[in-house]
């Protein structure tokens, strides 16, 4: 059985990080997100995948090309010139799906410990044309809301419901098993949404079923959820079949005396951490990051080559590749710094502010 992984979206909600890195490759514990997706499929015995690509496809192909440990797990690429939407992206992958039988489809931005095998078994035991995995969330309005009956037949599928349409906490987890007939329902070469067009049609024919998972689940598509997923993986809360290391530090990290590292952390190779700096509270530092004297980095993700200068504070935020936080600046409250941006000395950034790639904020130009 093969899978289609949908990774063609622009990652709009994770900008400015996704201006430079496709959402499928943002790192979690210093491993590109796609690595978790591939592990998930391989652990369930899926034999290969078609990547349904559109935005920044070269980086994703390069990542797969560099992996020499895929042991017979075959990967093909279906690249869109224009976004074809979630169903259009599956249709575009059809030419690589040459086996008979159902296929698995996965949104490329979900991190989950759910049991895919049991979803497939459930699907095969019913007369469903499609089986959707469900998870429960506090606020379903950002997702696809799914109402089911006692037999797990879907009664209603509402993509991005308004608050007054919320009747359940169960949502589409972005993991499907589809019969080949579903592909025949999708017109070729045009934009089609599986959530808004295909699922409601299957539901009206009583051929859409669901399977509820209570395992860990998160969509990493916003700064808040990306950061939370990173922290969950670092603290071992996800239940992935990964070795959980309390402290994950490359040998080449150059650390002065009197540095405080508070695990769990993940620190990549080539990082330099100066004296009296504190790094902890579920932090991930990419390659070659520099943390200056007395700086504090807490509950954050720093991508490759990020710098936090002396006396600066980065808390609960995301610092893009090559970005720099100047001396005594404060970056907190889910701020997101784009690649190579500079937050000059003494600025205070807070409340989810996002700084675009390459932008330079002069000293003390922003404060909250
Ligand atoms: N190939 C291709 N083409 N892929 C696409 C396109 C496209 O035009 N548009 C989006 N994708 C990919 C994205 O890259 C992502 O991996 C996946 O499809 C889902 O798109 P998102 O933009 O992340 O959707 P969402 O998070 O708002 O909602 C979806 O996921 C939720 C669960 O995380 C829906 O499926 C919801 O119903 C669901 O609850
Ligand atoms: Mg998403």
Describe this structure in words.
There is one protein chain. This protein is an alpha/beta fold. The protein folds into two domains: 2-222, Spore Coat Polysaccharide Biosynthesis Protein SpsA, Chain A (Alpha-Beta Complex), CATH 3.90.550.10; 247-367, Hexapeptide repeat proteins (UDP N-Acetylglucosamine Acyltransferase, domain 1). 19% of the residues lie in helices and 30% in strands. The protein has eight helices and 33 strands. α4 crosses α7 (194-204). The radius of gyration is 22 Å and the shape is elongated. The model has no long low-confidence stretch (mean pLDDT 95). Magnesium ion (MG) is lined by residues 107, 109, 219, 221. Guanosine-5'-diphosphate-alpha-D-mannose (GDD) binds at residues 6-9, 23, 52, 54, 80, 83-86, 89, 107-110, 143-144, 159, 171-172, 174, 195, 219, 221.
